[in-house]
């Protein structure tokens, strides 16, 4: 029995490559999808499709005559997926399951980044919010320039958590108190930019920021009556503007 495992950018491309290697047609094989392709998110988590292709053995006339039913069974539904075979094995959703799966996912991303010493702890904040704390000798890689990598990982973690939870969960990732240090930096930057707007008499524009960072600046400047703040643009390029109050 001929059988090979094949990867490809998509399931169809993997099937085509496998059929070419085996020199058979699609009707002559049984195809099992081990893993469908994943495009990833912000460059993380992308995976190729992986399939298993088995050539269906041809029976002789006498075998078909004496045992036609097995031959019919072999030819029936030649393409299957592991998802179909494991429908009855789908685990129940829970917050604890979501937390563990989120940790596993972050660890897998770190491994892809050649970070092997990552440790993750978590803290529940009420029923819906969970903070994850990351520690590693290579923590700077996890944070990235101005927290861009950490923000991307946080969005991924949010998606994974809510895939396995039984209620909506808010996820926050932090590494070496980066969030606290970043908030202090944003508060100082907000005051400097507001002073600049008053000094020049014109609008001052920030670089694009995630919504929660814009919120920090809005809150920091809410006590000032001499300026107005508002956001422009669309995510992920939405930015904050300060203007003197008229």
TrEMBL record:
R3H domain: residues covered: 180-246
GO cellular component: cytoplasm
Gene3D superfamilies associated with the record: 3.30.300.20, probable RNA-binding protein from clostridium symbiosum atcc 14940, R3H-like domain
InterPro entries the record matches: Jag_KH, Jag_N_dom_sf, KH_dom-like_a/b, KhpB, KhpB_N, R3H_dom, R3H_dom_sf, R3H_KhpB
KW Cytoplasm (keyword) present: yes
GO biological process: cell wall organization; peptidoglycan biosynthetic process; regulation of cell shape
Subcellular location: Cytoplasm
UniProt entry keywords in alphabetical sequence: Cell shape, Cell wall biogenesis/degradation, Chaperone, Cytoplasm, RNA-binding
Residue ranges of the TM segments: none
An MF annotation (GO) of this entry: RNA binding
Main location: cytoplasm
Keyword Glycoprotein tagged: no
UniProt note: domains: Has an N-terminal Jag-N domain and 2 RNA-binding domains (KH and R3H).
Subunit and interaction comment: Forms a complex with KhpA.
Similarity section: Belongs to the KhpB RNA-binding protein family.
Described function: A probable RNA chaperone. Forms a complex with KhpA which binds to cellular RNA and controls its expression. Plays a role in peptidoglycan (PG) homeostasis and cell length regulation.
Protein name (Swiss-Prot/TrEMBL): RNA-binding protein KhpB
């Amino acid at each position: 029995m001929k059988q090979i495992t094949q990867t490809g950018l998509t399931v169809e491309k993997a099937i085509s490559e496998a059929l070419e290697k085996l020199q058979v047609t699609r009707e002559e094989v049984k195809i099992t999808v081990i893993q469908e392709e994943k495009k990833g998110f912000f460059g993380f988590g992308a995976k190729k499709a992986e399939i298993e292709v088995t050539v269906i053995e041809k029976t002789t006339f006498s075998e078909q005559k004496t045992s036609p039913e097995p031959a019919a069974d072999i030819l029936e539904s030649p393409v299957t997926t592991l998802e179909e075979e494991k429908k009855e094995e789908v685990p129940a959703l829970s917050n604890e399951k979501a937390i563990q799966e989120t940790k596993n996912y972050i660890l897998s991303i770190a491994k892809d980044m050649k970070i092997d010493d990552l440790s993750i702890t978590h803290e529940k904040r009420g029923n819906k919010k969970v903070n994850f704390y990351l520690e590693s000798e290579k923590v700077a890689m996890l944070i990235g320039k101005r927290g861009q990598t950490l923000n991307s990982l946080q969005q991924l973690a949010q998606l994974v958590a809510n895939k396995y939870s039984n209620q909506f969960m808010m996820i926050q990732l932090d590494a070496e108190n980066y969030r606290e240090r970043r908030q202090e930096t944003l508060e100082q930057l907000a005051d400097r930019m507001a002073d600049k707007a008053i000094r020049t008499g014109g609008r001052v524009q920030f670089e694009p920021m995630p919504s929660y960072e814009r919120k920090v600046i809005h809150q920091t400047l809410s006590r000032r009556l001499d300026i107005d703040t508002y956001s422009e643009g669309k995510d992920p390029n939405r930015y904050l503007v300060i203007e003197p109050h008229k």
